[in-house]
Amino acid sequence: MAQLRQRLPRELFVPGFVAADRTEAIRSLGSLLIQHGIVDDGYVASAIERERLSSTLFAEGLAVPHAMGLTARRTALAVAVSPDGVRWGDDRARLVVFLAISPTDREQFQSLFDRLVELFADPTSLGRVVRSGTDYDAFLSQIEDLFDA
């Protein structure tokens, strides 16, 4: 779990997130990643294009947008919790995890990604995390509890 805290610093966590649609959500989280020197504009544009080709909405309200290539300067997550959901095509995303992956972290990060998707495939788990998503520490604690369960 230390890896998650390292990859998701407090400044990349957005509780009470509101966006009109998935493109606005990706741009908003992408701008946070740009501000922190993690990605550039091209990475965000690639993520929007990737989303246009095929939705990254998983399970019950989890969206995991990402660029088509591993071009981030360093690996990080920008996370938005949207209790009311962001319109994501015909569905709604309540948890948006924008992945920024550097070429050197692919394998290490893949295991964390797989575990998160597995956890959030359960609507009950996703609901618990979204409800705790008003506070950074509570959010991470809830994920840690689910990892340990």
Automatic annotation (TrEMBL):
Q: Which domain of life is it from?
A: Bacteria
Entry's Pfam families? PTS_EIIA_2 (PF00359)
Q: Where is the PTS EIIA type-2 domain?
A: 6-146
* SUPFAM superfamilies, per database record: Phoshotransferase/anion transport protein
Instruction: State the name under which the record lists this protein.
Output: PRD/PTS system IIA 2 domain protein
